[in-house]
Amino acid sequence: MKTTTTVAPQVATAGAFRATRRRRTSRSLVVTCSLAVAVCALFVLTMMVGSFQLSAGEVIASVLQLREDPSVDFVVRGLRLPTAASALAVGLALGAAGTIFQQLLRNPLASPDFVGINSGAGLAAITGIVLLQVSGVAVSALALAGAVAAALLMYVLAWRDGVAGYRFILIGIGATLFFDGLIGYMLTRAQLSDARQAMHWLTGSVGQADASELRLLLGALLLLLPTAVLLQRQLRALELGDDTARALGIRTELSRAGLLATAVVLTALAVAVAGPIVFVALVAGPIANRLLGPATGGIIPAALVGAALLLTADLIAVHLLPTALPTGVVTGAVGAPYLLWLLATTNRQGAGG
Amino acid sequence: MSSSNNLARRASALGPGLAVLCVLLALVAFLSVTLGSRSIGLPEVLRALGNLDTDGSINSTVTLELRVPRTLLGILVGAALGVAGAILQGVTRNPLADAGIMGINSGAAVFVVFAVTVLGVRGAGVYVWFAFAGAIAALVLVYAIASLGREGATPIKLALAGVAVTAGLASVTTGIVMTNVETLNELRFWQVGSLAGRYAPVLTGVAPFLIVGLIASLGFGRALNGLALGEDMARGLGQQVTRTRAAAFGVVAVLAGAATAACGPIVFVGLVVPHVARFICGPDYRWILPYSMFLSPIVLLLADVLGRVVVVPDELQVGVVLGVLGAPAFVGIVRYGRLSEV
């Protein structure tokens, strides 16, 4: 910021600059707070609707353990809270990871769903379901391992005097094709019932969360979201390009690797909990940026948008559709048209990939 | 002067090279007819081929009704995929343009699922036509999306638009499949690219499209050479750029669409083989196209034979074999290839 004042020493300009900055900060604060409120409202709403209708008061009282009512407690804490909490946590993780990827690779289309991480997790999980006949926690553990392994593999393959964004993306797409081919092969080897289970997992659903992984994801969120926000300064410098960042005194490769690792762990845990849910990571960042106006790039707003999207998608998937479908079907069907619009508009500005 | 001499020498060596490829293709085709999970002696194969009619024995039936159509289909589909890849890379001036990467498979899959669920269609011979239509629709959609905006269809935009459209269509497919187990069963076998089980009816269905497309494609060499100089230069040389591009896309859609319809998704052949062809013959598309046409079926048939021999008595689908072998090649192109020189 000092550089700006030396370039334009007039007091008036500095004052205008400070005013702009204040406006930007306050807008980002307002947006973040209203997003948080919206997410809380959706969170409560998800637990209210269903075959057994509840009021908002009953849900809140039961979740906070203010009142004892066995039937309400059973429905809320036993049945609906795990799903709602996993939608919340997975949405937060995907939103944050998506925006980190997009800023790090400097491409609005580079989200973890498309650059091989989800496919790697998918291949590992499907192999477990089909060949080893495992289910539940073991599938999630395999998915976690698969996602991390895929990310490491791509990082190594894309490494050539540092990792250029475009090379990472293209290698990621190649890896996606490779993993998808093997997933298809696994599906033909499976019994029909196993294949159906595998397809269900591959689509991604917040309803399949397991309590222990959910706890792990929530813990990781508490640790990693603040870390990511602390790294935000460096992220912004990276957005200016490697040379500028280096000139500002940032060890680019180290912070890039650290940020990528944070995003990969978040994605891997989210995939382990809910399966590879597409498009949430892709659209959360751009939507948050639209809301934020000039103060783009916030990780927390993007995470909140991700959570809001996934909670809404879950509401639609479970309650509005004639047959209950996995959440991933809804996010995919809603995300595709949005993506087309994104491609059209970013390209018109000449800023697309 | 020396470079034009070089070119002339190169051209004089390329003709015989093509003849060598022809011989190689014949050899591989012969291997494909003779090798398989059922071991049939060479004399029996030759007798069956000589008579061109089954004498009622199982061995001659296997040879004539299973292996020969399979090999012919492999040759046609391989040639189509290779040429389609070469044309796509030339028209888009994009080293990573490939029908598989551009989402053609997901379009075909959506239409196949639609045919099975809504129209109740069964059997590979019939839903070839739906796969064909879906493949063409997806290809047009992805190219249209990627070429929006002023820089046109850059490698990354094409690849990402392809992956994104694939993801969107795949979730539609999954939505249908999850509610209908029977469709899932049909789809999962179509989704792995394979030459097995696609016999005479499929072959006779798609062969006319593939042959016409292949013949038409050979006329694009000069136009692609012009486009390689850049759009403005090509226009300056008197080319109708828009018309050329549209015609080339039509040919690609027919070739890749018919190939995908017949065999399911086979990725990487169309991507990697044109690069090999370019490595051999330099930048002249009048040579790249025929070289791709002969190299690709060699690769495809070899992969198919490999899949049959590796896990006897079972077999590995050719799509899987190519996926495993093609991914390292793709990574190599991205890492070391001179991406801009197309």
TrEMBL record, chain A:
Q: Does the keyword Ribosomal protein apply?
A: no
The reply to whether Transmembrane helix figures as a keyword in the UniProt entry is yes
SUPFAM superfamilies in UniProt:
ABC transporter involved in vitamin B12 uptake, BtuC (SSF81345)
Give any Gene Ontology cellular component.
plasma membrane
Could you tell me the superkingdom of the organism this chain comes from?
Bacteria
Q: Which residues cross the membrane?
A: 28-49, 81-101, 113-132, 138-158, 165-187, 259-285, 291-311, 323-344
| GO MF entries | transmembrane transporter activity
Output the GO biological process annotations, alphabetical, semicolon-separated: siderophore-iron import into cell
The family database entries (Pfam families) matched by this protein are listed as: FecCD
Where found in the cell? Cell membrane
Its keywords, alphabetically, are: Cell membrane, Membrane, Transmembrane, Transmembrane helix, Transport
Topology with regard to the membrane? Multi-pass membrane protein
Q: Which Gene3D superfamilies match?
A: ABC transporter involved in vitamin B12 uptake, BtuC
The record's family statement is: Belongs to the binding-protein-dependent transport system permease family. FecCD subfamily.
**Under which name does UniProt file this protein?**
Iron ABC transporter permease
Native source organism of the sequence? Nonomuraea turkmeniaca
From TrEMBL, chain B:
| UniProt superkingdom | Bacteria
The UniProt transmembrane annotation reads 71-88, 100-121, 127-146, 158-179, 199-225, 246-273, 285-306, 318-337
Q: Which UniProt keywords apply?
A: Cell membrane, Membrane, Transmembrane, Transmembrane helix, Transport
Pfam families for the chain = FecCD (PF01032)
User: Is Transport given among the entry's keywords?
Assistant: yes
Q: How does it sit in the membrane?
A: Multi-pass membrane protein
**Single GO MF annotation:** transmembrane transporter activity
Instruction: Tell me which InterPro entries the record gives.
Output: ABC_BtuC-like, ABC_transptr_permease_BtuC
Q: Which GO terms describe its biological process?
A: siderophore-iron import into cell
**Gene Ontology CC:** plasma membrane
Q: Specify where it is mainly localized.
A: membrane
Checking CDD domains in the record gives: TM_ABC_iron-siderophores_like
Where does the UniProt annotation locate this protein? Cell membrane
The entry sums up its family as follows: Belongs to the binding-protein-dependent transport system permease family. FecCD subfamily.
Mind telling me what this protein is named? Iron ABC transporter permease
